Amino acid sequence: MNNLFNKMTSLLKKYDSVILMGHQNPDLDAIGSMLGMYEILLKLKITPYLFLKKDNNSYDDTIKEIIKLTNKYNYTYINKYKNIITDKTLLIILDVHQDNRIEYPKILNSKIDVIVLDHHIKNSNYIRNTVLFYIDSSLSSMVELVGHYSKYLNIPFTSITATVMLGGLEIDTNMYNLKTTEQTYKIAAYFTKLGADNILKQNLLKENKADYLRKADFIKKSYTIDNIAICVINNKFKNSELAEIADELLKFEDIEASFVIGKLDNNYIGISARSIGNIDVCTIMKLFNGGGHSNTAAAQIENTTIKEIEQQLKERLENIQ
Ligand SMILES: [Mn+2]
Q1: How far is CA 131 from its chain centroid?
Q2: What is the pLDDT of residue 56?
């Protein structure tokens, strides 16, 4: 990782200002890594901007609270960002790498250099023409990478940023159950040392009751085949919910692996797969041209129906058992 950090630091020095952007519907990992990079850039004497698409009131309560807590920070929006771009402005995209999933895809039409840093499974829609593209899907979260960078540069975060980042780490690892390594715990300890506030963190992690009940309803309709849970979502859902429900299903007795199927915005059928470790869900997702890791994997399939994918999945599961 030191190679990446070396390269990144020397690249950053070429710019006067940086726009930081995450994915649409930012979560604590996206906004936490944006805040972390913001504070690093300030220390490097490069002017940072946090890009949000919408005005503050249309985000969920968690993001609204974070905006309130960081109201002295430079935020920029769709109607303003063009004024700050010069030939020495860089765009850093965090926690996402697909051109259609970033907070404001049209920004890519600006003449601007781009760095992409992500920890998801690489998709074919990835952003081309970058000055640096780094993706490591074995990392727990984006905040873990930015945390390592902060340690490497010896630039600590404020306690509010450390709090948001710790929350992001916990969401992305599903409370230290997924992709959690010794390094992940070390970064959690680092955020705690910098003053991450447990009460504020718990408040930021609180879930909207209606969202919870909607997910519970999907879970209620799931079924099991031996020790595998399958959940088919025919209604509308938020993009992150497939993975969240797959995580949730693993909590139940006797469940070793879970598969959640739903129709994505882009007309693809998505499958999100999780395992507690004994079943290799990546092998199964590869049968659908997907990928990932043995305990967390996904696939997106074009020109098909939910029913067809559900049937294929059941057949493929039978064949491996
Ligand atoms: Mn993330």
Answers
A1: 21
A2: 64
